[in-house]
Write a structure and sequence with these properties.
This protein has about 80 residues and is α+β, with helices and mostly antiparallel strands. It has a domain of about 55 residues. It has 2 helices and 4 strands. Strands 1-2 form a two-stranded antiparallel sheet. The radius of gyration is 16 Å and the shape is elongated. It starts with 11 loop residues before the first strand and ends with a helix. The structure holds flavin mononucleotide (FMN).
Length: about 80
């Protein structure tokens, strides 16, 4: 790794929470990662666990639809 990327490995804080590096997963979710009720299914869980184990400091989850009665959008996507 060249010196110019050193900053990516430095910790920072969001409020009181220390994030151990600056590598971030942007929100990406596809319909096969949640069940018909909008909750993450096993594939969706695996997707996030693999990235956490890979060392990303911050993972922003993609769209989940935990309450499809309040927000029926997810049902259309599925
Ligand atoms: C397959 C896929 C799924 C995505 N799902 C979401 C999502 O669930 N929620 C969201 O806010 N953005 C979602 N995005 C948008 C990405 O987070 C967005 O493209 C990224 O932040 C843009 O980064 P860039 O400006 O570096 O290209 C998705 C993008 C892709 C390619």
């Amino acid at each position: 790794m060249t010196y110019s990327y050193k900053k990516l490995f430095e910790p920072y804080k969001i409020g009181n929470v220390e994030i151990e590096n600056r590598f971030t997963v942007s929100p990406m979710m596809i319909s096969r990662c949640f069940d018909p009720n909008g909750a993450p299914n096993q594939e969706g869980i695996n997707y996030h666990v693999e990235r956490a184990r890979g060392g990303f400091g911050l993972i922003i989850t993609g769209a989940f639809f935990p309450d499809i009665e309040a927000d029926p959008f997810g049902a259309d996507v599925y």
